[in-house]
Amino acid sequence: MVDYYVASNEARIMVDFKEYRNLKKKIILPLDRVKKIIGKINTKNIKNYGFILNKNKLNVYNKYCELPNSLVIGYAMALCFVGKAKNIYLAGFDGYKDNNPLNREMNQYFNKIKTNLPNLNFISITPTNYLIKKNIID
Q1: Which of these, 116, 131, 46, lies nearest to 78 by C-alpha position?
Q2: Strand partners for 124
Q3: Less crowded by CB within 10 Å, the N or C end of the chain?
Q4: Which residue among 83, 101, 119 closes a domain?
Q5: Running DSSP on this structure, what letter comes out for residue 69?
Q6: Claim to verify: residue 67 and residue 105 sit in the same structural domain
Q7: Are residues 77 and 98 in the same domain?
Q8: Which domain range does residue 130 map to?
Q9: 38 with 90, same domain?
Q10: Is there a single domain that holds both residue 71 and residue 95?
Q11: CA 122 to CA 138: how far, in whole Å?
């Protein structure tokens, strides 16, 4: 059921890169940003979608995006927006309890995505502690 895998966080790409070679599906990543990390590779199964880290921006274009951090959720949402997706079904975004700062950070990021990409509709298909009313962020 997976069409593509997505990666944007450089540290995570370093850790997981050897696994990418064994994937039978394509992976989308910011190739220009990670070439230094992964060196020469066969790009047959890699699709390049650019990514510029810009702390104050969240902009999406056909060939790249500008995001305020390297969380893969923002990169994936940019791809969904470019692909003209309407509904984004989230699984495993359970969040944190007890007013954890990481929960606040993710809620702020979801709100920023929704503000800048208003055509995307987030739907959680598993329980979540993020700001989702009736399984839909609004």
Answers
A1: 116
A2: 90
A3: N
A4: 83
A5: S
A6: no
A7: no
A8: 86-138
A9: no
A10: no
A11: 8
DSSP, collapsed to helix, strand or coil, labels residue 104 as helix
Length of the chain: 138
Residue pointed to by tokens 């949402």: 77
pTM of the model as a whole: 0.85
Q: Which two tokens stand for residue 33?
A: 């940003």
Q: Is 44 exposed, middle or buried (0-12, 13-18, 19+ CB in 10 A)?
A: exposed
Looking at residue 133, what is its pLDDT?
44
Give the pairing type, strands 64-67 and 59-60: antiparallel
Alpha-carbon distance of 120 to 4, in angstroms, equals: 19
At 18-77, the pLDDT tens digits run: 787 777 788 899 988 877 777 666 677 889 999 999 988 999 999 999 999 888 999 999
pLDDT band at 14 (very low <50, low <70, confident <90, very high): confident
pLDDT tens digits, one per residue of 99-117: 889 888 888 888 888 888 8
Task: Report the SS3 class of residue 67.
Answer: strand
In 3D space, the residue among 8, 79, 5, 13 whose CA is nearest the CA of residue 46 turns out to be 5
Confirm if 113 and 120 have CB atoms less than 8 A apart: yes
